[in-house]
Amino acid sequence: MEERRLMKGNEAFGLAAILGGARYYFGYPITPQNEVTEFMSRELPNYGGFFLQAESELAAINMAYGASAAGGRVFISSSSPGLALMQEGLSGLASIEAPVVVLNVMRGGPGIGNIQPGQADYYQVTRGGGNGDYHLIVFAPASIQEAMDMIVEGFEIADRYTNPVLIAADGMLGQMMEPVTLPSMDKEYSLEKILKTKPWALTGHKNKRERNVIKSVYLKQELLEEHVLKIFEKYDKAVKELPSFEEVDLKDAEIVYVAFGTTSRMVKEAMELLKEKGVKTGLIRPKTLWPFPREAFDGIDKSTKMVVSCELSMGQMIDDVKLSLKGRLPVSLINRTGGMLLTPGEIVERTLKLL
Questions:
Q1: How high is the pLDDT of residue 186?
Q2: CB neighbour list of residue 75: distance below 8 Å, 6 or more residues apart
Q3: Within the chain, which residues score under 50 in pLDDT?
Q4: 29, 34, 39, 41 alpha-carbon torsion, rounded to 10°
Q5: I need a labelling partner for 249 at 20 to 30 A (CA). Which of 15, 31, 281, 290 fits?
Q6: What pLDDT does residue 206 have?
C-alpha cells in the first residue's frame, strides 16, 4: 500500500536517498539545504547507514570519492557556492567512473550571494565546473514528488553509467512543503549486491580475484585520450537514452516558453492568465538539463512566432534553447536574478510587451 506524507522538500530529498539505497552521506551545512544534513544525521543510522559531517565541502566530496570507489551507494548535498568547491572532486569522480548522486539546492549568486532561490548554476552543472572533458547527468525537478522520484532513479542511472548524477533543485523546492507518495525501498542493497553488480569496486580481493585499480592519472597522452574517448562512448549513449521533458499545449501556440524547476510552475499559471486574454501559449519543460532534450523542439507548431526562455538567471539555458532551435525562431528571455522569483503576473506583463 502506498504511503502518503506531507513533507518539507529537504527532508523528502533525504528520505528518497535512503529509500533509493543510499547508505553513505557526507555533508557540510549550507543554507538553504541544511535540513537535508540534519535529516540524514538523524535517520540514516536507523537504516544501517553511515553519516559524517565533514569539515568542508572539499572534504565531503573526497569522502564521497572514497566511499563510492569502494562500492558504496553515496548521496551528498550542498548549495551553489558549496557545489563550486566540489568541482574538482566531481571531475575526479567522472574520471574514475564512480557513481554518486549529488543534490544542489540552488541559491542566488555569484560568489556567496544570498540564500534565496536561484537557477544561475545552469552553466556550472551542465558544462562541468571542473577540469577536462566530462559530463554530469543532470535532472531538474519541478515538484518535491518529482525530486524524490529523480533521486531514487538517479542511483540506478549513476550505477548504470558509472557516473555522477546531479539533481538541480532550487531553494524554493527545498523549503516548501507538499504531499508526496513515498517510493519503495531498495531492500536488496547489500555488500553481496555490491560484489555482484560492481565488480570494479575496491572491496578487497583476498587473492580470490584479480586486483582492482581505480585511478584518474594517465601521464601518457595516448592513454588519457583513450580513457576520455571511452567515457564519451557512454555519454553518447546517454544522449540517446536519457533526455526527458514535458510539453504543454504546443499545438497552435503563438509563444512557446521553455522553463525548468519551480519557474515552470509560475509559467503554467501565467499561461492560464494569458489564455483568458486570448493569447495561445505552450511550454517545453526540460526534466534533464544534461542531456538537454533537443528533440522536444521538433514538436513546436508552425503557428509559433517566438520562443521565450524563462529563467532565474541572466540567461544560461537560453544557449541550449537557441542551439536546439537551429535558428528557426527568434528567442527572447524573461528572467529575474539575485534570488528574485518570477511571478505569473510579471511573466504575463513581459510577454504582452514582447508581443
A1: 61
A2: 14, 17, 22, 24, 25, 40, 100, 101, 103, 151
A3: none
A4: 10
A5: 290
A6: 78
